[in-house]
Amino acid sequence: QLQLRESGPGLVKPSETLSLTCTVSGGSISSTSDYWAWIRQPPGQGLEWIGSVYYSGSTQYNPSLKSRLTISVDTSNNQFSLKLTSLTAADTAVFYCARRGGDFWSGYRFDYWGQGTLVTVSS
Amino acid sequence: EIVLTQSPGTLSLSPGERATLSCRASQSISSRYLAWYQQKPGQAPRLLIYGASSRATGIPDRFSGSGSGTDFTLTISRLEPEDFAVYYCHQCGTSPDTFGQGTKLEIK
């Protein structure tokens, strides 16, 4: 059974950089059919796709965050990571990592999710 | 970006009743790229439906999805107590991926 687990600080100061890591177990991050994604959810609000990475390092970013965002993959450790710079209180959210599985014919979807980690931006 | 608008915002029903949730896209999307998720408080979203109408592994058959183009529907045929939660639609056919704002299904 595939499992994903987020790790990183729970509290970050404004203007600083957030670094989160997602560790994948029970499967390989080098699967040629999957993308690996970050999704966030501000308290009491809906879901926002942040961006995705392929095992090759190819990335897709949400344009609203692109100027502050870097997503990378470490296949040797079966992990992928997020760096988000210049944080403000508006970045306070639960951050989830997820697998985008599927294929062209059946469609794509986020079929496995981590449990989420709350990141609070505050001085 | 494609905007997904879910309605109603809140749906109040009783166990045993039928629930119909709507997701409307600002432009046409392939049904292959429309999914539905259920989220309970303090939990990660759970995949229910992908490809607009295919149930994910382990999802009871009281959950069904339908629709095409810009209009999609999630139906729960007979509500169980554990079905009261927030439901999100999601499209991944056009970048950036987007989610609807959610429909909260509450006990009447």
Give a quick rundown of the structure:
The complex is a heterodimer of chains A (123) and B (108). Chain A has strands spanning 3-7, 11-12, 18-25, 35-41, 48-53, 59-61, 69-74, 79-84, 93-103, 107-113, 117-121.
Could you give the topology of this structure?
The complex is a heterodimer of chains A (123) and B (108).
Chain A lengths: L2 E5 L3 E2 L5 E8 L9 E7 L6 E6 L5 E3 L7 E6 L4 E6 L8 E11 L3 E7 L3 E5 L2
Parallel strand pairs in A: 2-11
Antiparallel strand pairs in A: 1-3, 3-8, 4-5, 4-9, 5-6, 7-8, 9-10, 9-11
Chain B lengths: L3 E4 L2 E4 L5 E11 L4 E6 L6 E5 L3 E2 L7 E14 L9 E6 L6 E2 L3 E5 L1
Parallel strand pairs in B: 2-10
Antiparallel strand pairs in B: 1-3, 3-7, 4-5, 4-8, 5-6, 8-9, 8-10
Commentary on this structure:
The complex is a heterodimer of chains A (123) and B (108). Chain A is built from no helices and 11 strands. Chain A is mainly β and 123 residues long. In chain A, strand 7 (69-74) and strand 8 form a beta hairpin. Chain B is mainly beta and 108 residues long. Chain B contains no helices and 10 strands. In chain B, the strands form 2 sheets. In chain B, strands 2, 4, 5, 6, 8, 9 and 10 form a 7-stranded mixed sheet that branches. A 3-stranded antiparallel sheet of chain B has the order 1-3-7, with no helix packed on it. At the A-B interface, strand 5, strand 9 and strand 10 of A face strand 4, strand 5 and strand 9 of B.
